[in-house]
Amino acid sequence: MTFRIFRNFLSCSIAVTLLSSGLNAQISAKNYTPLVSSGALPEEFLKTARSISEEEVKAVEYGLDRYARQQFVIANNYFLRDLLLSGDVLINDPLTRYVNKVADEILKNDPTFRQQLKIYVTKSPDVNAYAFDKGFIFINVGLLAQLENEAQLAFVLSHEMTHILKKHSVSQYIENIRLEHSTSSYERGSEDRSLEKYRFSKEQEGDADMEGLKMLKQTNYSIKALNGAFDVLQYSYLPFELIEFKKSFFEDEHLRLPDTLFLKKTSEIKSNDDYDDSKSTHPNIRKRRGSIEAELKVADESSRKKYLVSEEEFKSMREISRFETCRLYLADRDYVNAIYASYILLQKYPENAYLKKMVSTSLYNIAVNKASGYRGRSISTGEASLSSSTYSIENYQTIEGASQRLYYMLDNLSSKELNVMALAYTYKAHRQFPEDKTLSALTDSLFSELVNSSNLYLNDFSHRTKVEIKSADTVKAVVDSSEVVEESKYSTIKRQQQKAEVETEENFIKYAFVGLLKDEEFVKRYTQMAKGLTRPRVNDEYVSTPSKTGSKKKKAGPPYLGISKVVFIDPFYMRVKNDHGNKSVNFYESEDQQQVLADIQRKCAERLKLEYVSLTTKGLSQSDIERYNDNALINEWLGERFKHGDNNHEMMTSSESIRQLIGKLGTKYVAWSGNYNSKGKAYRNTYFFIVFDLESGEMKKFETRYTRAKDTRDLLSSFVYNSLMHVTKKPE
Amino acid sequence: MKLILFRIPGFSEKMKKTLLLLVALLTCFTVNAQVAGYMGKRFNIGYSVYASPTYLYPSFNSEGFGPGINILHCADAEYVIKQRTSMCFSVQFGKTGVHTDGYSTGSTGVYYRSKSGGPMVINLLNFGIGFKFFGRPQLAPLGKYKKLDFLILASSVSKSNGSFYTTGNQQKPYPVKEGTLSYKSFAIGWTFGRQRIFSNILVLDTGFRFGIMPGQVFSTLTDGDFAGDSSNSLGGQIGSAVKNRLFFAQLFNLHIGIGFLAF
């Protein structure tokens, strides 16, 4: 009996230790390891959308809307396939494992339904979750970072499970088609139609809330805690915590930021839960709360719990989500939020290299944008044209809460001031973690910016503190045996000017490096950069090479690149039928043509003796997790790079991992191409081909061709051959 | 180098050398051009057929007026010299017909009657050089193009004793010296066409061509004399008839051809 108790105790302890070590393997006081997928690839990642669609289309019941349902099935499968293979979906990671445990708890009494569900966590900072009728639920990292307790997560899951049970997606799709084809004069107007679509969607959301709550009542989760779930949704636009931002974060003994850079008071958080939801797919928060309010009162609330799986696991999972959110903000070009999120976590982990890197990278990227003069334009991301992607700090007046101070400060710092502040912060972090290559590269990049963009050199900075200057009231008289030097008019003027300077806060950057100028390495690196050396001593290729004149003019590059090896990722392909403004994608043909394009690329590469490395997600097997991760990394890099637009000076979030991948693949060049063909009254075809340098972020080639022609094989072959010829041929 | 290809009656040695020199210069000019071609292939040889409708004048095997089609067979060679430009060489051969009556020598009316009963046959051998311009963003030799070509039309009519007769009540044979009448003219053509490529090797070329003979237009505008109608000699009149016929044959043509991407 004693032995049995001891054995059970030992098993539990081991289990807890293993579990917590698994969850906390990501975070340590000094660092954080970003989440990657691991283990075997699940079956849904291996099957092609076509094979699944062909089976499911046959199984669609006969009826008036059979065709529409079949089209929905096909579209659904292809969209799901693209999402699963995008690399955003995490596999066998701590977050996904935990979320699945909570789902297990909810559906303890319905194992059949539980088996149908596939629940994954996706790498996105948005506070959202969504479901597919096929049984897939995706929860964003951003949502996990904001939750207060496990019961709230359970409610989110049960809400999504209801969507699946009630087949809301296909119903919405059928309803939308019905409205599009409706002959009723009321419903035919496009405005009325849209409103009707929103109304239908809101009905479904209300239904999911109610039924989700009923599902949860069958478990032992606290129902009272669910009110907080709506708070999470209502305030999802705010950071995961709100703490006062102190200017001392960037200050040190010598670098003192003026008070004018800080708002004395930040704006209050508005509690507007009754907003106009007529053009929203979800009811507003007040309505959602109101509709289930009565159901929130349960008799057995006292016996219910906020945590059924594990409170410790939940908190650990949330912490990991928050760390992950920092880099997701960075990848999303939301630099201010990345700094603020890192700032929050640094209060708990003050010596964490990863968090300091997040802050340094964000500061650097804001600084290069300011130096490039992108200030004042509205943020536009996700635009098709690379050159249209601009960055600017969001207007602080639109920000609520404590983070407003940070927005205000960063927006009001001039380019030079920000550069100096960023360098001071980054250099100190670099000294703390000298082996970290990213921090070292950032340091050099900031030195380069200081010299080339801000035109600041060593002698622009004071070696003495303000106090030292102030205390030197008179010029010391130099006395030797024969001569006495008296104070002259000019020395008086100089002294008065110095005094005026130290008393003003405006020129605070002059004294920023008083301490750092005593550091030999700091001075050495600064001097080297100022001498016009274009390659820093640290062997790091992702530092942008500054031009000696500091000019940021684009040079017209040669038409030929002379590249011998390129990584090709899956090309994009879409064939669309445009029937009087109604566009429908032909998924099967698009998939076939995608394969045709990939084959053409391979053949042309062979012909041109270009080494072709394919990083495809086609034909994955269970053991191909490495290829999956490599593809995910490239996709993440490309997504971030496209957001940067023409500006390839910004540091990429995944620089270190990309460096390792370059070593593994044997080339730093990645090519992405695609074709879009639409058939309406006439054919319209758009082909594109892009080559990036993964090390520097430089776009080596960007080619688009628009023709009014069908996407025949010979047309694609001629375009692809021409593109690859320009890649492989040596410049003259 | 003796070229059998150029053994054509009336085609002078000087003209042959000039043409050779032109080709050589153009080849040298294009050697260093940065050209892609189709999958690296720039040279295409093929065969095409040019069809022009005829009504006012008969085709080579019909008699009298009436609708018909004249066919020209053409051997083409095309070479991509720039991303969107090809240079073309062509040799066209074919037959057509010209009207048999309306000739006169002084006061005597003459008409032609062939042994087979058809029109007077013109043997055509044309040499052309042209440039195909492919529209952006297409790349030669694929896609829609516009072609400017220059043709030297070398036509000949065979005379034989007993083919010509006088008009009037007594239709007596009109004696003519045996031999061949040769005529040279010049035409400029503008083609709208399209090329497709199959299996990376076969080229399908289709299009329609508009052509004009500047000499005819010029003489009409200046002298009011279309193709030398006012000539007194039978040869001259036949020549003017031939040029008239060729003028209308050049006006509009449909063509279809097939080629082979050699290298």
What does this structure look like?
The complex is a heterodimer of chains A (about 725) and B (about 260). Chain A has about 725 residues and is α/β, with parallel strands linked by helices. Chain A has helices at about 1-25, 50-60, 65-85, 95-105, 110-115, 140-145, 150-165, 170-180, 185-190, 190-215, 225-235, 285-295, 310-330, 335-350, 355-370, 405-410, 415-430, 435-450, 465-470, 490-505, 520-530, 585-605, 625-645, 655-665, 715-730, and strands at about 120, 130, 135-140, 565-570, 570-580, 580-585, 610-615, 670-680, 685-695, 700-705. Chain A contains 25 helices and 10 strands. In chain A, a hairpin with a 5-residue loop joins strand 9 and strand 10 (about 700-705). Residues about 10-25, about 375-390, about 475-480 and about 535-560 of chain A have low confidence and may be disordered. By secondary structure, chain B is of the alpha+beta class. Helix content of chain B is about 20%, strand content about 50%. Chain B contains 3 helices and 11 strands, in the order H-E-E-E-E-E-E-E-E-E-E-H-H-E. In chain B, a hairpin with a 2-residue loop joins strand 4 and strand 5. Chain B is elongated, with a radius of gyration of 21 Å. The interface of A and B includes residues 608, 712 and 721 of A.
Percent in helix of chain B: 10-25%
Termini separation of chain B (Å)? 25 Å
Question: What is the radius of gyration of chain A computed over CA atoms, rounded to a whole number of angstroms?
Answer: 30 Å
Question: Could you estimate the helical fraction of the residues of chain A in percent?
Answer: 40-55%
Oligomer: heterodimer
Q: What's the pLDDT, averaged over the residues of chain B? A: 81
Number of helices of chain B: 3
Shape of chain A: globular
> What summary fits the major beta sheet of chain A?
7 strands, mixed
Sketch the topology of chain B as an H/E string, one letter per element. HEEEEEEEEEEHHE
Give the overall pLDDT of chain A as a whole number.
85
Termini separation of chain A? 85 Å
SS strand fraction of chain A: 5-15%
- Strand percentage of chain B lies at over 45%
